[in-house]
Design goal:
- There is one protein chain.
- This protein is an alpha+beta fold.
- It has a single domain, classed as 2-Layer Sandwich (Translation Initiation Factor IF3).
- Helices cover 27% and strands 31% of the residues.
- It has helices at 22-31, 49-60, and strands at residues 11-15, 39-44, 63-70, 73-79.
- Helix 1 links the parallel strand 1 (11-15) and strand 2.
């Protein structure tokens, strides 16, 4: 899916419908294919993913660029830092 200038990302992970810990585990796997400095966009519906993504990024050394909610979907933009 191509990114628009208002929503720049290099890859997208649709983790809607998955529950903890699957959104984080799938994000970890998806980040392997993102170049250093690239952005992974993650879509999730598990409310627990809010705290999980923040902790995951801190633990793995990646940067949580943004975290927002659109209806029942949580949207994350994670920058791969090469850590």
């Amino acid at each position: 899916m191509p990114s628009s200038s208002s929503d720049p990302h290099d890859a997208i992970l649709d983790a809607r419908g998955l529950i903890c810990p699957m959104p984080v585990l799938k994000a970890k796997k998806a980040l392997r294919d993102v170049k250093d400095g690239g952005i992974l966009k993650v879509l999730a519906t598990d409310p627990g993913s809010v705290a999980d993504m923040k902790s995951f990024c801190e633990m793995m050394g990646n940067r949580l660029v943004s975290s927002e909610q659109d209806g029942d979907v949580f949207i994350y933009h994670i920058e791969k830092t090469g850590a």
